[in-house]
Amino acid sequence: MNPRYDLKRIIDIEKWHKLQDSLSLVTRMAIITVDYKGVPVTKHSRCQAFCQGVRKDGNLSSYCQKCDARGGLEAVRTNKPYVYRCHFGIVDIAVPIIVEGQYIGAIMAGQIKLRDADLPLEQIVTRPPNAETDRKFKELEPEYRALPELSSEEVSAIADMLFHLCNYIVGEAIQKHATVDMYKKVLTAEPAAPDPVSAAPQAYEQIQAMQHELSSTLIEAKIKQGTERAYRAANPLLQPAFDYMYRHKNENVRLQDMAALCHVSPSYFSRVFTRETGENFSVFVPRLKIEWAKQLLETTDLSVNHIGDELGFADPGYFIKTFKKFESLTPAVYRKIYSREQRRNSAD
């Protein structure tokens, strides 16, 4: 687990809990946030009296924990909110928080009843009949009847809203921390045991390396703003290759290396990749880099040479040639046309 993806490290828990309380109030759902291990990082917001009573029972609480664990796993597996029924038939939602393809935690929401039956839901944990359990339910029956009721449409809309909102906030927090960390490195960097002859060149090289790393971080953030998420492969065998390409935008990835990463032969990887994308690997990769280049031309003032270098084009001429091959015009002309269109739209 990458430590920079630790929820407790990247978000202000106190502020996050205030947001969680507000979301709970608006949605009428109980909400709690857990890390990638399933350990709560916040307290429950609006936990219903019925569920509080059930979770205090040693026998019944174990079934609640099984529901939480199974729901979280299904959300991670499908990479989207998972709506299900608990062992008492109450509706719950597991909302995964996934950043750069890595699962870092989840929002567990719910403790409500459905007003209609339009949403077919799985009861993921079944509990064998038990006289003691029946007695406990009768004790808590008034609290059960008091559970909020929502329509299927409301539940689906809330699940999607929590998924997009929480992933956006956490993603932005990670980018902010990465940028701040880079600045701190630059500001606190000191040459160790300076040599009168070599100290200046070493310091210069060190600063250059840090500036390049900071620039890469900022460029990565700019590209992400224009890209909702990394490519999700229909064939999971290829996902490690796509994840690598999206995380290492400045590298010239080779088919052989991506095949090795996916533990298959280059020829088999090539066939599966072409079926997946509709393009040969040698066409898909440069086209993808040109799409990233267009985003940087549109959103930054970086020079054409700088953009080409950041995307792994060591030769500026080759970058311009490749760009023109896919877009039928040079990067400089593309930026000029885009800027003119933006000014015209603003005037309108």
UniProtKB/TrEMBL annotation:
Residues 239-337 form the HTH araC/xylS-type domain. Pfam families: HTH_18, PocR. Keywords: DNA-binding, Transcription, Transcription regulation. The keyword DNA-binding applies. SMART domains: HTH_ARAC (SM00342). PROSITE patterns: HTH_ARAC_FAMILY_2 (PS01124). InterPro entries: Homeodomain-like_sf, HTH_AraC, PocR_dom. This is AraC family transcriptional regulator.
